[in-house]
Amino acid sequence: MKIKIQKAFTLIEILVIVVIISILSILTYRWIANFKDLGVITKEKSDSAVLKNSLAENIIADWAFNEGFGGVTADSSSYHNNGTLNDFEDTTADHGNTSNSGWMSASKCIFGTCLKFDGDDDYVSFPYDVTGGFSAITMEVWIKADGEQEANIIMSKPTDFFVHFSKTYFFYLTGEDWTVSDYLALDDYLPYNKWVHIVATWDGSTMSAFINGEKQTSTLAFNGGETGRLVSSEEFIVGNDFYGVLPHFKGLIDDIRIYSATVSVSQVREDYFAGLNKLLVGGNITSQEYEQRFAEINKSYAEK
Q1: Tens of pLDDT along 169-211?
Q2: Domain limits of the chain?
Q3: pLDDT tens digits, residue range 259-278?
Q4: Residue 144: CB partners within 8 Å, gap ≥ 6?
Q5: DSSP class of residue 242?
Q6: pLDDT digit string (tens) for 82-127?
Q7: Distance (Å, rounded) from C-alpha 130 to C-alpha 92?
Q8: Fewer CB in 10 Å around end: N or C, the chain?
Q9: How crowded is residue 97: how many other Cβ atoms within 10 Å of its Cβ?
Q10: Domain 58-262, CATH number (from 2.60.120.200, 2.40.10.120, 3.90.226.10, 2.60.120.20)
């Protein structure tokens, strides 16, 4: 006697298989997405470590602004050039999230917490000679400017080392014998309301800059005068006005590092990508902007 298999059972089995495949597909997609995020985070930590370790012996200031509260910000380099917050509205945690100035929460910043400057009177002062006597120097910082105006970012007094939020007047140095450079200009205007990675560097003969990982075409010859070294300063300042000519900086500043050496193109790009990864993971840029920035920098170097 032949046994007949009901078609209904075959259809049920097919439906069960379809459901199982669907569930496995969803789980696989989520696993891949989580793995991708983990890869981004791992790359971020790895890239940042590569840059920092390769230049550790030359770092002369490392202000991460990761305190999150209080009136003092620490320098984690061996020089311990700690700074004081001046004229901020409030120095309690997260005050800048809902006000014009103060500490911002980590969710609004790149590497931990950061500082918000109101553009009127806020600044951070470091009463030390940070840059004097060096025959090469690099300044690296992340900024997010608010308001369409040229402004001062970093300077040392009386007249040694300046970096401005300006296309035409970006980077300026003074030698030990008071020989001064011209201003190094940028290729284009800096964007507002977006996080921008800035690197200004001098190798003892040439001043140059990187914006968002891309080396600017403009360079400037400067030999540092007779001694080839930078003049000593009395104070190093972040966010203050520039002798009444350029106003205080308005916006966010995060993760300032200064080295007594130049940095390579690959090191700048690694640090820029580390910041980009952090912005993506923290939800401070969209995946579309992340991919666009990544493509732009790769295209730029492919063309060179």
Answers
A1: 899 999 999 999 999 999 998 988 999 999 999 999 999 999 9
A2: 58-262
A3: 999 988 889 999 999 999 99
A4: 193, 194, 195, 196, 251, 252
A5: B
A6: 999 999 999 999 998 899 899 999 999 999 999 999 999 999 999 8
A7: 28
A8: N
A9: 13
A10: 2.60.120.200
At residue 49, does pLDDT exceed 60? no
Give the contacts of 263 (CB within 8 A, at least 6 positions apart). Answer: 51, 55, 138, 140, 199, 201
- Report whether 186 contacts 199 (CB < 8 A): no
Identity of residue 254: D
- Token pair, residue 14, equals 């097919």
pLDDT tens-digit map of 281-295 = 989 989 999 999 888
- Tokens linked to 256: 């300032």
Q: Looking at this protein, which amino acid is placed at residue 258?
A: I
